[in-house]
Design a protein that fits this description.
single chain; alpha/beta; five-stranded parallel beta sheet; five-stranded mixed beta sheet; binds xanthosine-5'-monophosphate
Length: 327
């Protein structure tokens, strides 16, 4: 495909006009590369894969097959939004796989963070490969590789996060339509392709999802407490004008209990930890200090509305010494 590397003199895409010109150029190149063949895409609902999906839907329509694997560790409303945007609105060819039980059964009783990550990553590839094998005539695999991914893998900072992992007998030609773009450019291009703002400007979310925010062995009830408290936090940040301003914010529900009292009765429930941070490069992060009023409101909502929570804590620790995520 043309434009394999970002040209040194490429103008940063900062305006709708520049984004539209890029889209037009890429669509022509995609049509030329793919012709009448079929393309497969793992659509997580994250920024990069969503923009790639929207671009390919424009370029080749039904020749694109999107697979959305719900590993049960997504945030509240995420799988529903993927179905609404891509299947209902953009009329994409979308295969939705609810693999929640499969993932949670495999993770049951597993405490070690690295083992949890390996199980989630490995199972993801397996589910995706199973779906791919059911399809005929797929020649291309689309990926949301972006320019920093290429720079980081060249610098040896991280292994190329894409392409890796599929069984050896599954070989596809790669389609990577945003691989010369920086993240801010991907977002503008996504907006011009008609994706909702809350999809293209969303905060970073780790591949292992809520699994790393449910430390230790994941149980369904504690995972639900993470999901529900996260949904409340996101709703309140949006209402208070903090969405898009704070880099990342989420909740963690650790596996220990403390006593409390509710409706005159003793409780023995989990605490919910709120983490809200700012950074530019995620190597060093600072803590976003919330107003007392907002903290009081969050404590009240989370303890009232989330089953299993009787206490709310706020994490004031920068990175270093703490990492952003708990596992
Ligand atoms: P840490 O916890 O390392 O996180 O300070 C830095 C940033 O990376 C995100 N993160 C991940 N993203 N897969 C991802 O795609 C992962 O396994 C993963 N672990 C951490 C984290 O949310 C933060 O933005």
């Amino acid at each position: 495909m043309a434009n394999d590397r970002r040209p040194e003199d490429m103008v940063r895409i900062t305006t709708p006009e520049l984004a539209d010109a890029f889209i037009e150029e890429q669509i022509a190149a995609l049509k030329e590369q793919i012709k009448d063949k079929k393309v497969l895409l793992a659509l997580s609902g994250g920024v990069d894969s969503s923009v790639v999906a929207a671009m390919l839907i424009k370029a080749i329509g039904q020749q694109l097959v999107c697979v959305h694997v719900n590993h049960g560790l997504l945030r509240k409303g995420e799988p529903e939004q993927v179905i609404e945007v891509f299947q209902n609105q953009m009329k994409a060819n979308l295969i939705y796989v609810d693999a929640t039980d499969r993932f949670l059964d495999k993770l049951a009783g597993v405490e070690d963070p690295e083992t949890k990550r390996k199980i989630i990553g490995g199972e993801f590839i397996e589910v995706f490969a199973e779906e791919a094998r059911k399809l005929d005539g797929i020649e291309f695999l689309a990926q949301g590789t972006i320019w920093p991914d290429i720079l980081e893998s060249e610098a040896g900072i991280k292994a190329h996060h894409n392409a890796g992992g599929l069984p050896e007998d599954m070989t596809f030609e790669l389609v990577e339509p945003v691989k010369i773009l920086f993240k801010d450019e991907v977002r503008i291009v996504g907006e011009r392709l008609g994706l909702p703002a809350n999809m293209v400007y969303r905060q970073p979310f780790p591949g292992p999802g809520l699994g790393v925010r449910c430390p230790g062995a994941i149980t369904r009830d504690r995972l639900e407490a993470v999901r529900e408290s996260d949904a409340i936090l996101r709703e309140e940040f949006a209402k208070n004008g903090l969405e898009g301003k704070v880099w990342q914010y989420f909740t963690v529900v650790p596996d220990f209990k403390s006593t409390g009292v509710k409706d005159g009765k003793r409780t023995f429930d989990w605490p919910c930890i709120i983490r809200a941070i700012n950074t530019t490069d995620v190597m060093e992060v600072t803590v976003e200090h919330l107003s007392d009023e907002l903290i009081d409101h969050l404590v009240s909502r989370i303890t009232k509305e989330v089953p299993g929570i009787n206490r709310v804590l706020f994490d004031y620790t920068p990175k270093p010494p703490a990492t952003v995520e708990y596992e």
